[in-house]
Amino acid sequence: MKKWIVFTLLLLLFGSTGTSEIHAKKNSEDIKGNLVIAGGALGSTNRDVYQKFIDLAGGTEQAKIGIIPAASGSLKSSYAFKKDLLSYGVKESSVEILPVSSHDFSGTEEDESNWKKNSESRELAGKIEGMTGIWFVGGDQLKITDALLKKNGKNSKTLDAIWKIYRDGAVLGGTIAGAAIMSDVMITGGDSLGGFNQEFTNKERSNSAGEYAPVNIEKGLGFFQWGIVDQHFDERARLGRLAATAIKSKPRDLAYGVDENTAMIVNNQMQTIEVTGRSGVAVLDVTAAKRIGKRIKNVDISYMSAGDKLHAKTREFTFKNDKAETKGYEYYNFKPLPATGVLSSYGSLKHFLSYSLVDNASTNKAESYLYNSAGEGFKLIFEKGEDTNGYWGYEDGQKDSYSLLHVKMSVEPVTVSFEKSPELFKKSYQNSSFTAEEEGVEAVNKGSLVIAGGALGSSNQEVYEAFISRAGESPKIGIVPAASSSLKSSYAFKSDLEHYGVPADNIDILKIASRDFKGTPEDESLWKNNKNDPELADQIKNYDAIWFVGGDQTNITAALLNGDGSRSLVLQSIWDIYHDGAVLGGTSAGAAIMSDVMLAGGGSYDTLASGFTDTYDSMTQQEGGPGYLEKGLGFFPHGIIDQHFDKKARLGRLIATAAAHGKQDEFSYGIDEDTALVLDNVTGKITAVGRGGVSVIDLSQAEKQKDAPSLYKNIRLSWMKSGDVLDLETKVFTIREDKLSTKDYEYYDFQAAPHSGVLSPHGSLGNFISYSLADNSAEDEVKSYSFSEGKGFELTFRKGAQTKGFWGYKDGSKDDYSFVGVELNIEPVTVKIR
């Protein structure tokens, strides 16, 4: 796009001063059509989003859908979306990739830049007028507006045709760039740090090679009548840029941040916005916000999840009716540490606000930071107000689903500085006094393990099939409910097994527990004597598989170990069938019990800083405090297991525990939620399956200093994703064959700011390293910090001689990374904030 066109559009958008108020015309009542606005990385298996788009287009029999490829650099994503539509039942003759573009595509013989003239084609406009749905693929949103707008900023014939069918009842949809173009105010570049710095640009591109980028705003196509839309919201941490844009453009409407693999469904006739998909939509209200210099106060943040609805005109939220209010009934009661980096539990915005603030009775305020490598940035303060509320329920099995209402955010400029202090925690650090006898595994073991990291989705077919297939044909399966406080999760897992084809009569919930369950007339605490019941021990020998549900892992060991730590009769029977070929599995607490050393409590920061404790205060200690260890059941003899690894940021506590109790030749393993580590004892290999990853910690070359117990150097970190394999004997990783090596072919080339909190892009540990280091040619090391009350840690992740990254697509257009051999140093620091 020529610069004079950009200038013209900016004048149209902001007026001659760049600050005048801009509002969309509220004529949605005259629009019979609907919108499906997806936030990016739309999984091909995300049936809810695809089905909604198809239904609104008239259903599989009546739909006539046009795909606009203009945003992309090739036709690949357009063909992929067409293939997905066909997989959901749309006829091939009913889907067409439309010749709309202003630039050439790679991988084709034709010069698609010639398609620019098609925007004024009566023939193409007529074809569009016969369609019931239009989809804009992702890429560069400016390429869409360049293809569909005239040089003077007015609509082309093609765009007029799209508007006509939209007004008459067609559905318009799009992902990434195809979402950004939906509103009048279109964000085309920039990030949260640029937004909080209140740096805006009228250049064609923000400087994406720097640590942060100014926010670029241009005129969109205006299909969405109710405010500003941003996308990749949670994954790329765009709260700052959306809030700054909303404040600058002064809309009377709300601003919406759509997470990846999620869509907002806009019904213009009903004036409603509904959420579908696998994450959420942030809703920002800045009408009462104040900006004084670089300070911002009173940004109102709500967060909608699947099934929630907002009435755009009245601003009334309706939350999914199976959710319970958290206000006055908060589940958690812990003091949250500031969200300051990859060691912060619940590191994404939505999760941090849900667990650490809204559903937490102990606090009314939570903090995070965002800054560059010079320490120049901002402190973010999130607070409860009188109208703050949360709504909690389960989704897709045992996965928490939160919706949030009216959290208040303030932003203050700060400068953060760090000074290395190796002996900082020397006096307060408590070494572990824990000892555990190794259970070991007999020389010939035919069994296998499926160890899930928690929050296992009922739809996670890959994990369920890994468990069921190893149990054999028509398997008999026993479920151990001991970890839970009720039988609800056991019945839910039984239902899931039935869904995947296991006969109901083949599944038993075993009477193994050490405490009473709520919601039942029976006193299950009496089951504690069943551990040595010969009849139950004999019954166990008939099973092909045993599954341990989640909860508190100490309740499992209490239910199965004798007082002296020896195996009960029931536990010995479980060992016997495991030895003979049975599969044992478990999730969350059911994963923690698998190794000899069982991590039962503690947080990453506190364990690195304070070491270990011999006391345990039940589930409260799951959210923080020094590490607490107990004897596990030892089914996995190849290292220490930790779970909820990504969401609860347990890298630090696993490293400290492995340093204290791991063997020289063993790795340690952190399993993400909705993911499983599968061990086949016969082959001696482990495989990752599911939607997250398995972090593999290697301390074999790590350096420790006696006078600096919290300092670590030369840790090796690898990240296995679905299909990746590790040979336990050779220690060789085999990465899924469809993935490409990133080494010397890195896609990104930018200076990565430190991971500093919930507004750091790609916030989870594995994604942060993948995007910012492994697949980034501009960086050989990246940093993250974790601190509280003037003390903390500097984490330096760096490329070494053995570092390799691997990239592929999974489930549609979702980036799927693995990496091996990333080097890590952890060094104590003092922290000054001014």
Index terms:
834 residues, alpha+beta, Rossmann fold, 20-stranded mixed β-sheet, nine-stranded mixed β-sheet, 21% helix, disordered N terminus
Per CATH, the architecture of the domain at 3-16 and 31-280 and 306-325 is 3-Layer(aba) Sandwich
* SS summary, helix count: 20
Q: Low-confidence parts lasting 5 or more residues at pLDDT below 50?
A: 1-25
Residue-averaged pLDDT: 94
CATH superfamily of the domain at 3-16 and 31-280 and 306-325: Class I glutamine amidotransferase (GATase) domain
Which secondary-structure class do the elements indicate?
alpha+beta
What share of residues are in beta strands? 25-35%
CA-based gyration radius: 27 Å
Overall strand count = 44
Shape: globular
Question: Main beta sheet, described?
Answer: 20 strands, mixed
Helical residues, percent: 10-25%
Distance, first to last CA:
43 Å
Q: Tell me, what is the CATH class of the domain at 3-16 and 31-280 and 306-325?
A: Alpha Beta
CATH topology of the domain at 3-16 and 31-280 and 306-325: Rossmann fold
Function: Exopeptidase that catalyzes the hydrolytic cleavage of multi-L-arginyl-poly-L-aspartic acid (cyanophycin; a water-insoluble reserve polymer) into aspartate-arginine dipeptides.
GO biological process, one term: proteolysis
Enzyme class: hydrolase
Family: Belongs to the peptidase S51 family.
